Amino acid sequence: MWHLILWIVFGSLLLLSIGIGLISRLLLSPKKVPYEKTYKLGIQKGEIDDRLFQEKKKEELFIPSYYGYKLHGMLFPVENSRKVMIIAHGIKWSLFGSFKYVEMFQKRGYSVLLCDHRFHGLSGGKYTSFGYYEKDDLKAWIDYIFSRMGEGVIIGLLGESLGAASALEASKRDHRVKFCIADCAFSDFSTLLRIRLKLDFKLRLFPIIDLVSLIIKLRHGWSFPEISPIKGLEKTKTPILFIHGKEDRFIPLQMTVDMFKRKRENKKLYLVPRAGHAEAFNVDPKGYEKRVIDFIKEIEGVKANLC
Questions:
Q1: Neighbours of 59 (CB within 10 A)
Q2: How far is CA 77 from the centre of its chain?
Q3: In terms of Cα–Cα distance, which of 88, 233, 95, 253 is closest to 171?
Q4: What is the pLDDT of residue 140?
Q5: What order of strands is seen across the sheet that includes strand 59-64?
């Protein structure tokens, strides 16, 4: 009898271990949209004007990350500019998803650097880390811009979803970031996973998230609680424009509202009616551009008064 119980317990633990391992692999290695396909889909969605893209002066870049893989980016320069916008895309996509923002910032005199996250596009990296390593990859790009353009360059960050969370994490740590635009960021990764588990699978087995996090910590050196853009946000002096679509069904609107409330100063909030996840610009491009440019003008005005 006891032998049977032991075998049942052993079998259950083995199945649980296999299940947790499978979940962790699926989570860290989601099925991505191929790089070339993201360009074609961008054209179909109206986010990319093929002729404009081909005509734009641009420079393809590959730089080393701090973790042994290459990072891929595409720079759209403005002649004699000392201002650079670095833009980070959402999960499963590529830098082509950020091309829709290029014209808006170039008109304001900013060169624009589009970045492929690790594990995405033409960048290296064996898996995604939901902002843990991505924030350091953004730092690598900031270091590259400073080494190329020298001290005094103005750098802003814009990110969507995963890119927004990574941009917030980078902004909390790097004083060289003069402002940040966070479009539909999650506030805390563990909380987001619990919400998705409940909504997508009707499950409330929250301890499984902690177990998966532990496995990832043992295998890769980081855990879910370490990915939390809202933590320490009240200490951040970097100006932040928080953006979120009111119809976002993937990352709750409340997460952006909570981060806006947590930050004490130098903040703006733009909630876009009828916009789903990462669709704010597509739904209201004129309103989006006005809010962004007004935000930047105010920052540049303060900087000018201090000089």
A1: 11
A2: 22
A3: 233
A4: 98
A5: 59-64, 70-76, 111-115, 83-88, 154-160, 177-183, 240-245, 267-272
As a whole number of angstroms, the distance between CA 276 and CA 286 comes to 17
Query: Of 258, 279, 276, 278, whose CA–CA distance to 267 is shortest?
Result: 258
Mean pLDDT of 252-269: 98
Residues written for the chain? 307
CA dist 188 → 161, 168, 205, 225, 253 (Å): 12, 12, 18, 8, 13
DSSP 8-state class, residue 233: G
Of the candidates 88, 117, 234, 257, the residue with the CA atom closest to the CA atom of residue 187? 257
pTM over 0.70: yes
Specify the pairing of strand 240-245 against strand 111-115.
unpaired
For the chain, counts of helices (H) and of strands (E):
11, 8
